[in-house]
Amino acid sequence: HRRKTRFINGDSSYILNNKIVFDNIISKYVKTPKIYSIILKGEIFNLENTNSYRNINDLYNLLKINKRIVLKPFIDAGGGKGVYVVQDKNGLLFINGQEIEIDKFDSLVKSMDHYIACEYIEQSSYGHDLFPNSLNTIRILTMKDPQNYEPFIAFAVQRIGTKKSGFVDNWTSGGLSSNIDLESGELSKAASFHNNSLTWHSNHPDTGNKIE
């Protein structure tokens, strides 16, 4: 059903499917993660004239200040594929929790196309308690009533990362999905999908923390 909803927006679907276009529109209304640079065919470009992140050394300097940044595709991507959380720990580089040599990181960036380097978001205690290693996001599906054109929320789900999904909370990468009661805000049991079967979890399978 969720996959069918992408057809609702028709020709405007590219707004949701392109993270740069989406950010340019939605950031006027809500706070969004800051986009530092865009990477095209291994070349790093600043997205705004105020930025100075134009090469690999600039990204290193950014890491020294912020300690973490996120590299991810901005178009034609889904399911958390190709997302890299880059971290500086006392001068050592880590990608998705694994230490990496500087020259290998350089090669990785040079292999990227249609990527963005953006701000790493520290989640609140609520998201951290669900699972601390991923940013656990809420997906809200909004529609317009075809009779009066009033917007309404059709449903909402809480996405939760796991050890299997790693640093992302995507369901197709091994994360959990819990329905949010639109009236009370309460979470249902969370579903995981493995070997073509659903499993329901009242508590997180890795941490034991309560979900339902």
Number of strands: 12
Rg is: 19 Å
The structural class is alpha+beta
Shape: globular
Subunit organisation of the chains: single chain
Termini separation: 23 Å
Please name the defining characteristics of this protein:
single chain; alpha+beta; seven-stranded antiparallel sheet; 33% strand
Task: Please characterize this protein's 3D structure.
Helix content is 20%, strand content 33%. With 212 residues, the chain is α+β, with helices and mostly antiparallel strands. It is globular, with a radius of gyration of 19 Å. The two termini are 23 Å apart. The mean pLDDT is 91.
Provide a brief overview of the structure:
This protein has 212 residues and is an alpha+beta fold. It has helices spanning 2-5, 13-17, 19-26, 56-66, 102-110, 125-130; strands at residues 35-40, 43-46, 68-73, 84-89, 92-95, 98-100, 115-119, 138-144, 151-160, 176-180, 187-194, 197-201.
Please give the structural blueprint.
Blueprint: H1 2-5, H2 13-17, H3 19-26, E1 35-40, E2 43-46, H4 56-66, E3 68-73, E4 84-89, E5 92-95, E6 98-100, H5 102-110, E7 115-119, H6 125-130, E8 138-144, E9 151-160, E10 176-180, E11 187-194, E12 197-201
Antiparallel strand pairs: 1-2, 1-7, 3-4, 3-7, 4-5, 5-6, 8-9, 9-10, 10-11, 11-12
